[in-house]
Amino acid sequence: MNIVLIIFDSLRKDCVGCYKENPPWGKVLTPNFDRFAENSLIMDRVFPETLPTLPMRRAIYTGKRVYPFINADFRLRGDFIGAFGWGPIPEDIDTISEILQENGYRTCLISSVYHQFKPSKNYWRGFDQWTFIRGKENDPYKSGPEVSQEVIDYYLPEEMQTPGMIKLLKKVLANSQNWKYEEDYPVAQVFIEATKWLEENADADKFFLLIESFDPHEPWQVPAHYRKIYDKSDAHEQILSGYKDTSKLPPEILKRTQANYSGLTTMCDKWFGYFYEKLENMGLVEDTLIILTSDHGHSIGDKNFMGKRGYPSTREVFDIPLMIKDPKGEGKGKRSNILIQHHDITALILRFAQIKLEKEIDGIDFWENALEEKPIRDYVVCAWGPAITVIDDNWWFNCLIDGKGPFLYNLKEDPLLTKNVAVENKEVCDFLYSKAIKEAGGKEKIPEVLMKAAYQQETFPGCSPVAAREISE
Hints:
Layout: E1 2-8, H1 31-38, E2 41-47, H2 53-62, H3 96-102, E3 106-111, E4 129-132, H4 149-155, H5 163-175, H6 186-200, E5 207-213, H7 224-227, E6 244-245, H8 251-281, E7 288-294, E8 299-300, E9 305-307, H9 315-318, E10 320-325, E11 335-336, E12 340-341, H10 342-352, H11 367-372, E13 379-384, E14 387-392, E15 395-400, E16 407-410, H12 426-439, H13 448-456
Parallel strand pairs: 1-5, 1-7, 2-11, 2-12, 3-4, 3-5
Antiparallel strand pairs: 2-10, 6-9, 7-10, 8-9, 13-14, 14-15, 15-16
Helix pairs in contact: 2-10, 6-8
């Protein structure tokens, strides 16, 4: 059996049509994702193991938990400190690509996630071919020419012009200066290269193709015809994420930002469809496991914030899409509500590849359970630096790793997470916090640097003033 794993960066679940949720600004068109979903098992409750970009990929590439970030305080040359776990995959941990390669699979990584290819990283381990699509965000792709202030003023509203944002925009525009046609954009290049690889490797007995699209991650650069699907106004152009409050941002600029994200998501859908059509034309759909997911989402005006963060955690960032197409058609048209995390996908791939490991991984093969709607766990713990989120059937709990600043939401009564009920449910906070500590292996396993980061971080307005405490079961 062939295996294709497709990961879109920052693809919101509510922007994928089959989930029928829709973001606050309106429906996003994803006809190819939706057609794929009709023939797939749709997972409704999938959450990251760790966030953001690189810790998540370490989890899914290895099937091993990254939380509680033991030996993960990376401070490497040529990189910025994106978060705890923002580093290479440890040398003593096998990757899914290495395992499949050793078991006769021809392996390939095609990616526009430039963080994977920095001098300090090693995410291409175990691939017979890896292809890096250049030019997204701060990728050191083009060093010039430097753009003029006039161009900066066109792409960045005055309200958002800070030294940091201007510096980022200059790099973004230098990198993208030669994108003249739709086919020049990274998401198009990723899937064009993926289809070429399929043709060049048609002789492979079995293959593992990992496709990583940094889109629809910001900057939200998209051909105008995609943006105009959602906003035909003459509003000021805006393609960057401010990572701050949006309550004072002019409504037309926020709408333009959302339209650019929606347009880029629709463009991702279009090029996924291009790739899927190639699979169909080559007769590969009948013997290929295809998995489509995201690492996390992105707030774009939700609760007056633009960006992503682990504290306070929100649905639009943590609740992610996952669709699985079994070549035999098992699971077609079905949905499952069991709790799943990224590292479980690794175990699922090993199941379909019929590979038994000598070393255990943390991920759980969930296929049969999903089809029969039998849970594989009662709760999930998602970590982003010193912030932890615990989710079960009834509650969404978020605080810092030392228990400070709790947020608690009743999922049955408040699925949109609008009212913090931590004060009234102190015992629930303590219970869920204890689950997160247990998942870490106990407080003694939590690195001191992580506890220090929690101590130094300020609590968010609206949190409970009473910290959560570990209790004995």
